[in-house]
Amino acid sequence: MNALEFDRYSIRFGDFQVLREISLGVEEGSFVAILGPNGAGKSTLLKSVLGLTQGLPQEGRVQISGSVRVLGKDPGEVPPDWMGYVPQVKGFDRSFPALALEVVVSGLRRSWPLRIRPEERRRAEAMLEQVGALHLAGRRLGRLSGGELQRVYLARALIREPRLLLLDEPATGVDAVGEADLYRHLEAYQSAHSQGAARVTVLMITHDWEAAQHHASQVLLLNRRVVGYGRPEAVLCHECLAEAFGHVGHAHSLVMGR
């Protein structure tokens, strides 16, 4: 079964074509890295999966055609428990006197917890421990490093054990050690949910071609349309990268081992 299916999916904002004729299927259990230049439609694609484009007006400035299916349903019909999301821009003001534990519990409740119940505390602490961040439970957001904050948000996204995990530039502001830990925790979560009918699928936007090569099972190379989709070694080739980005440079040489 495909976790995601796009059928000739297009979005136009006024005169700007954000996505053009996107048609592909993402198999359940895949780890898909989405790469492309700025303005390629990567975040819009994730928002479409989350159902955040469905409320846009269909006349005048915004035009949407084609379809998206998420876990066999229209995006707006997917139960909230089925999806977890780690945004690139965090919604919480880091000066707000919130504790890491409260942030994780907010993912469980879908609202801010004024008082945390014992079972909520137990589940939040267990998830923080799973991502190596239990020691951060009582720490305020303003005292967290980029890597620590990312672990807390990952715990928040995973606490309902979603079948589909969406990540928008998860390694932004994270050092090399924290980035390695992030991918290790993602792969461990996928591995723990690799059996049965509901395997976990990960969709990750990244600019890191090496991370895509080493951690993703599939790469989607996007520049408003699908430039390439498949195994990293097939998609991260000179021709595909040049077509998507217009040029290739030092980063591409690293990816290709040159």
UniProtKB/TrEMBL annotation:
PROSITE patterns: ABC_TRANSPORTER_2. Keywords: ATP-binding, Hydrolase, Nucleotide-binding, Transport. Pfam families: ABC_tran (PF00005). Residues 4-248 form the ABC transporter domain. InterPro entries: AAA+_ATPase (IPR003593), ABC_transporter-like_ATP-bd (IPR003439), Metal_Ion_Import_ABC (IPR050153), P-loop_NTPase (IPR027417). Its EC number is 3.6.3.-. GO terms for molecular function: ATP binding; ATP hydrolysis activity. Belongs to the ABC transporter superfamily. PANTHER family: METAL TRANSPORT SYSTEM ATP-BINDING PROTEIN TM_0124-RELATED. This is Zinc import ATP-binding protein ZnuC. It comes from Meiothermus granaticius NBRC 107808.
